[in-house]
């Protein structure tokens, strides 16, 4: 765990380029901003190469899934590879909708992803493990989460983050687990999308160690959410969303170290 | 009024599928989440049937009104009918823009809606009653709101919710009115869109009684807004929006019963 | 500076039509609503003329930059001209992406803009002045901001607002500067987009004096943000965003006069 990456991120203010889920796009941009990076969003394929050129990392959210967006995702993924920019994918709802799984699988044959971040149902789908997914939620199942994450990482040859009560981060061999967090993340649509783009921001300052970047981003995000939740007397998803932005901006490495729980 | 539907909704956590207004999509997803259902959003027509299959109700917001979206709305409405899923329509701005009224009218000939939720100007347009509408607002007029709502319900053969200071809910014969609410709803863009999708969530657990579902959803939403407004000393639309999410999650049947005003 | 325009705006409640940045669209709609105008948003070119007809001002945000949106922007700009509605442009990221600059430049040859609102990097690009821009941020540079704004105003024959720590407003000859504000605006994505649409709302009640409208809108917005920031003990971007909506609704001319700093 390299928490000093948070300070580096804030000093270098990397530009994170996003094709973003239309549902959560403003939240994601604000989250990137709050943590200390600089968001840029695009909907137009003609500006892809220029956008990639000025960016330090790319996050592609497969919740943006109309056909023009899929073409855009393909081009941006390939451009990120060609320009050696770290590439993070959030495979929204591939566990619930077979059409999404098929398109996502096709896409990932055409570029090399560095980090995939999804919930258990999504990661299981990418690993071809049976799993019950329901809507955007994680679903439930009996498989061991670490094994699912490892299988997906081996299959896709990248770092995998399986988000949940415990975040599992693996490169297929090494495994880290982050135990911080709060159930309020699940009550706020866009928490996962925001984490995916924050992972990209950490990759931008990681000097190529995406396993380290991924676990640090998970710890920072989960611990920040927990700090906010600890200040609330009740489960207040609206207040949580606003204060999560506050705390992403204010949280320090020392604050996180005090409550960090990982192995 | 069947307030126990709120508890049923929270126990069964129905999936509500939305084609959503691009202006308010995150708010709508968060509102569905907060009340206790599970949102899923789509922009791609190829995944329509699969999405409908995993959903318990469908909400189509005509604020999403580009031509590809209209084609998507048509297909999703027909798929909802074919799969016997309750179908709610929010006819955004059909009272102000004749192009929207024409497209909406055409759409509703091609599938059968279960509930329409709109403001006075929108419902009047669908009932072919003269009414002055201005922008997204309700406009003002002299016609009796109950008669307008009834006329629209008879014409479209469905339940109609005419939202406003008083919500009028009718199946064309029976009429319910909800008197709770707060002017802050009008100051927050997306309140109406959110209500429409929450109506769909209640329809999902209503065992086919959409008149009951519609009025209960209106009471829950209006009373929740009123509870939030009562805690604010001034008209604070931004704070209201955040706390509305909080209270949709926290509000109980007993809280609502204490202030419920309907007939 | 004509602060009485704020009261006029609230009395007449002008409809502001927007082609809006997909990233910030709900925030912009809520901001227009909060200040006392009435927002209407569109994504469909077929409804352009009808939408312009019911509007009192038009704001086109070039963050909406897919090809269908650019066609829509062109048509709406031309319709605004033909119908003598004030036209405000926000040239998002034209300083960072040459493709955007080229498309924006082409667009502005095909309709006449009344006000352009951008950051230093964006305005410099439109004035053909060298400037370093990074992502959506302003970048930094040595040129004198007033000269850049003047050059852009002369080139585009319109009023230019160069937003930043100090807002520079010019018609190419006369110059006003607004010194109010807060760094929190930069931490909240969408502050600039919101200001652009609020400028359009002030133009709607300005009786054609767009230089006056532009500087008054800047003062109202900057001072409102400053009032909110003064109540916060720390830099809280999420809380700031919610309370900015509150204060846009609550702020009075007298409140603004107390802290106004301009020349």
At a glance:
The structure is a homotrimer of 263-residue chains. Chain A is α/β, with parallel strands linked by helices.
What does this structure look like?
The structure is a homotrimer of 263-residue chains. Chain A has 263 residues and is of the alpha/beta class. The first copy, chain A, has a single domain (4-259), classed as Ribokinase (UDP-N-acetylmuramoyl-L-alanine:D-glutamate ligase, 3-Layer(aba) Sandwich). Chain A is built from 12 helices and 10 strands. Chain A has helices spanning 4-12, 25-35, 48-53, 67-82, 98-110, 120-126, 145-156, 184-187, 191-204, 210-231, 237-250, 253-259; strands at residues 15-19, 38-41, 57-61, 87-90, 115-119, 132-134, 137-140, 159-163, 167-170, 175-178. The first copy, chain A, has an 8-stranded mixed sheet with strand order 2-1-3-4-5-8-9-10, sandwiched between helices. In chain A, strands 6-7 form a two-stranded antiparallel ribbon. In chain A, helix 2 crosses helix 9 and helix 6 (120-126) packs across helix 7. The A-B interface holds A 22-27, 63-67, 69, 93, 96-100, 134-137, 187-190, 234-239, 241-242 and B 15, 20, 22, 25-26, 29-30, 33-34, 38-44, 46-47, 50-51, 54, 68, 241-246, 249-250.
């Amino acid at each position: 765990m390299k928490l000093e990456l948070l300070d580096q991120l804030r000093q270098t203010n990397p530009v994170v380029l996003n094709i973003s889920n239309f549902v959560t796009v403003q939240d994601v941009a604000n989250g990137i901003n709050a943590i200390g990076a600089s968001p840029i969003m695009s909907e137009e394929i003609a500006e892809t190469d220029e956008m990639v050129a000025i960016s330090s990392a790319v996050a592609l959210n497969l919740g943006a899934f109309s056909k023009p967006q899929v073409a855009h995702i393909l081009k941006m993924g390939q451009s990120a590879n060609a320009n050696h920019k770290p590439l993070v994918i959030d495979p929204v709802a591939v566990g619930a909708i077979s059409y999404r799984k098929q398109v996502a699988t096709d896409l990932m044959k055409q570029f090399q992803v560095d980090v995939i971040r999804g919930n258990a149902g999504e990661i299981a789908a990418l690993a071809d493990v049976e799993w019950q997914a329901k809507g955007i939620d994680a679903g439930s199942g009996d498989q061991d989460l670490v094994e699912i994450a490892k299988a997906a990482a081996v299959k896709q040859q990248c770092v995998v983050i399986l988000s949940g009560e415990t975040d599992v981060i693996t490169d297929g061999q090494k495994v880290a687990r982050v135990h911080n967090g709060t159930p309020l993340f699940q009550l706020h649509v866009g928490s996962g999308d925001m984490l995916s783009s924050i992972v990209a921001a950490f990759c931008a300052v990681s000097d190529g160690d995406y396993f380290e970047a991924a676990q640090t981003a998970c710890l920072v995000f989960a611990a920040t959410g927990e700090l906010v939740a600890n200040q609330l007397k009740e489960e207040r998803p609206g207040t949580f969303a606003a204060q999560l932005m506050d705390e992403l901006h204010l949280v320090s490495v020392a604050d996180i170290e005090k409550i960090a729980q990982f192995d």
